[in-house]
Design brief:
Pfam families: Pelota_N. This protein is mainly beta. The protein contains 1 helix and 6 strands, in the order ββαββββ.
Length: 103
């Protein structure tokens, strides 16, 4: 895992930016996260639009989401980290409660 940015205060509060490189890095991230932490991640959302004629189209939109962590789960078989939380930054492509599956 690459540490891209670190800003830690003397009271251990702060922020880090991590870039996972191997599947095992999700396990280490799971052990770093705590309930109440803020998590920011880039994701792709499928957006459906309806035209004035009633036809429906869909497109994929890359967006950055930021949540306050409510639950953290790790699937050791798939090396997948799943984080659920409440949206803390307004975003037109997402609702109030989000789930991030990370591999």
């Amino acid at each position: 895992m690459k540490l891209l940015h670190k800003d830690i205060e003397k009271d251990n509060a702060g922020q880090v930016t991590l870039m996972p490189e191997e599947a095992e890095d999700m396990w280490h991230t799971y052990n770093l996260l705590q309930i109440g932490d803020s998590l920011m991640a880039s994701t792709i959302r499928k957006v459906q639009t309806e035209s004035s004629t009633g036809s429906v189209g869909s497109s994929r939109v890359r967006t950055t989401l930021c949540v306050c962590v409510d639950t953290i789960d790790f699937d050791s078989q798939a090396c997948q980290l799943r984080v659920k939380g409440t949206n803390i930054q307004e975003n037109q492509w997402s609702g109030g409660h989000l789930a991030f599956p990370h591999r």
